[in-house]
Specification:
Shape: globular
Low-confidence stretches: none
Distance between the termini: 17 Å
Mean pLDDT: 93
Structural class: mainly alpha
Number of helices: 5
Number of strands: 2
Number of domains: 1
Largest sheet: 2 strands, antiparallel
Radius of gyration: 13 Å
Length: about 100
């Protein structure tokens, strides 16, 4: 079960349910991966809405690792989701919204 107040979400990948969370460590990992100097720069990067396949793998991979799974970005590139590429984009959007969006009490 996920804790939405902590920014956790669930995803069904390769027929298995995973918890994803962009922890502080996961966000720092993404800052390094995208060669950005701050959290604000990272949020601006995501606000652009232009993602490569590798960007999606980095984001989802960081979320999976933040959720406690030992999965590499390369492993994420080989994963499948029922909705295909659209499902990965939707998953990335949900993860970002859970992390940076307004949280209901």
């Amino acid at each position: 079960m996920v804790n939405k107040k902590r920014g956790e979400i669930e995803a069904h990948l390769n027929g298995k349910t995973y918890k994803l969370c962009l922890t502080l460590g996961a966000l720092a990992e993404l800052e390094d991966a995208f060669e950005l100097e701050s959290l604000m720069a990272l949020t601006r990067h995501f606000e652009k809405g232009t993602f490569s396949s590798r960007d999606l793998a980095r984001l989802i991979g960081a979320g999976l690792r933040g959720g406690g799974h030992k999965i590499s970005n390369e492993d994420v590139l080989l994963m499948q989701i029922d909705e295909g590429i659209t499902g990965f984009v939707t998953l990335a959007q949900k993860l970002l919204l859970a992390t940076f969006g307004n949280q209901e009490a």
